[in-house]
Specification:
This is Pseudouridine synthase. Belongs to the pseudouridine synthase RluA family. GO terms for molecular function: RNA binding; rRNA pseudouridine synthase activity. By secondary structure, the protein is of the alpha+beta class. The chain has three domains: 67 residues, Roll (Structural Genomics Hypothetical 15.5 Kd Protein In mrcA-pckA Intergenic Region, Chain A); 86 residues, Pseudouridine synthase (2-Layer Sandwich); 144 residues, Pseudouridine synthase (2-Layer Sandwich), CATH 3.30.2350. It is built from eight helices and 16 strands. Strands 5, 6, 7, 8, 9, 10, 13, 14, 15 and 16 form a ten-stranded mixed sheet that branches. Strands 1-4-2-3 form a four-stranded antiparallel sheet, with no helix packed on it. The protein has a two-stranded antiparallel ribbon with strand order 11-12. The protein starts with a strand and ends with a helix.
Length: 307
């Protein structure tokens, strides 16, 4: 029998897929997305999209077993997270490369599973929920909501772009100065990659600034003006400067086993979480990226001076 969830003010304006991931963290993401696409999950009796924003009073019908019965199988991972900031509402961490943001199956190690262990909250019905995602092989600063109200606030902050994110990347070749890369992007379902499509792609823009340039590689700061999947990686490859280690988007991968891309800082604006407004949270560079920067004789001194 399907379970019916009636949306209250805590989940007003939350995306359907985010709501379901919170309620059914033990269910693989792929299973949730398939159920939405096939119309097995409905809102007010109608098929809808994963991005649909729920409103107070909506009724969500879900075919999965009641999450209260699944709670006992939750895989709480007793592994560390590097905490940058934490209070009763928000957890901000420095995610290591190689770690999933959210589990794709019950057995997966992920930020969410580790956060559950960190806050020792396996009995409550709220599961720490990322306000945004980082690719598995990307490291850096990441924010999670620890209760429904902070989830709603963080969702609004990211949706309304009241947040500034800065990434650091080591890229091939010499890049000097600063500028904006504008190239429309879309998902290619055949190659399962994000590609530039000037005819039908969605508007995508990335601001860049060179921090240290050499003949073989450069250290750059990146600001995603829009937020498309793999945007930074594709844009840099598009202008002939793929991220070192990013084999998927054109690099040889000779010097690094993963893309040398790190979410360096996150700054929150607006009144949704007013006590955090204007605060900037920074994640130190991981050791493998520091080694690659040294390998190309690039300077780290400019990071503090220019960011």
């Amino acid at each position: 029998m399907a379970k019916i969830w009636k949306i209250d003010e805590d989940y007003d304006c939350v995306r359907l897929d985010r709501f379901l991931r919170k309620k059914y963290s033990q269910v693989p993401l792929g299973a949730i997305m398939r159920a939405i696409r096939k119309g097995k999950i409905t809102v007010n009796g109608e098929k809808t999209e994963p991005s649909y924003r729920l409103y107070r009073g909506d009724e969500v019908s879900v075919p999965f077993e009641d999450p209260a019965k699944l709670k006992s199988s939750l895989n709480v991972v007793d592994k560390p997270l590097e905490v940058i900031f934490m209070d009763q509402n928000v957890l901000i961490i420095n995610k290591p490369a190689g770690l999933l943001s959210q589990p794709a199956s019950r057995e997966d190690d992920s930020v969410v599973n580790r956060a559950l262990n960190l806050i020792n909250k396996t009995k409550g019905d709220f599961i720490p929920t990322p306000a945004h995602r980082l690719d598995r092989n990307v490291s850096g600063v990441m924010a999670l909501a620890l209760n429904p109200r902070s989830l709603r606030a963080l969702t609004a902050i990211f949706r309304n772009r009241r947040v500034a994110k800065t990434y650091l990347a080591v890229v091939r070749g010499c890049i000097s100065g600063e500028g904006v890369i504008e190239a429309p992007l879309e998902r290619d379902e055949h190659s399962l990659k994000t590609v530039v499509n000037k005819g039908e792609g969605k508007r995508s823009a990335t601001r860049y600034m060179s921090l240290s340039a050499g003949n073989r590689a450069s250290l750059v700061a990146l600001e995603p003006i829009t937020g498309r999947p793999h945007q930074l990686r594709v844009h840099l490859s598009h202008i002939g400067h793929p991220i070192v280690g990013d084999v998927k988007y054109g690099d040889s991968g000779k010097e690094a086993g993963r893309p040398m891309l790190h979410a360096y800082s996150l700054e929150i604006f607006g009144n949704d979480l007013s006590y955090l407004a204007g605060r900037k949270f920074c994640a130190p560079l991981p050791a493998d990226m520091v080694i690659v920067i040294g390998l190309f004789d690039l300077s780290l001194d400019t990071i503090r001076g220019m960011l």
